[in-house]
Write a structure and sequence with these properties.
With 118 residues, the protein is mainly α. The protein is 83% helix and 0% strand. The protein has 5 helices and no strands. 11% of the residues are buried.
Length: 118
């Protein structure tokens, strides 16, 4: 029988692999896995996802940088803007009711899927 910890590690591995292959943030996968698969509240799933993405993004970014696939100057500026935006966004998320936050996340996922569908 697979333990809860093993399932969590397996989920992390699968999300990391999917993020590396597809070039998307792991939150697209992690938040639904944590809310539906592990029963965590939306706010906890989002916060945990953001913290868990740090090592995943770092390893993926370094790997792509070594292959020459990173515009470092652009990455620096985007990262700086993203850090400020993350502070503002997290503050807003902490104030939103759970249902609004969950629905907003779902809408973003649907819009992303619709825009990417060929």
């Amino acid at each position: 029988m697979i333990t809860h910890a093993a399932l969590v590690v397996l989920a992390g591995f699968l999300v990391g692999a999917a993020s590396g292959v597809l070039g998307v943030g792991g939150g697209i996968f992690l938040v639904p896995i944590m809310t539906f698969g592990f029963g965590l509240p939306q706010r906890i799933a989002q916060g945990t996802s953001l913290a868990a993405i740090l090592p995943t993004a770092l390893v993926g970014g370094v790997t792509h940088d070594r292959a020459g696939n990173v515009l470092r100057r652009a990455a620096l500026w985007i990262g700086l803007g993203g850090a400020v935006g993350a502070i503002v966004g997290a503050a807003i998320a902490l104030q939103l009711p759970h249902a609004v936050l969950a629905r907003a996340f779902g809408v973003v996922l649907l819009l992303a899927a619709w825009r990417m569908w060929p």
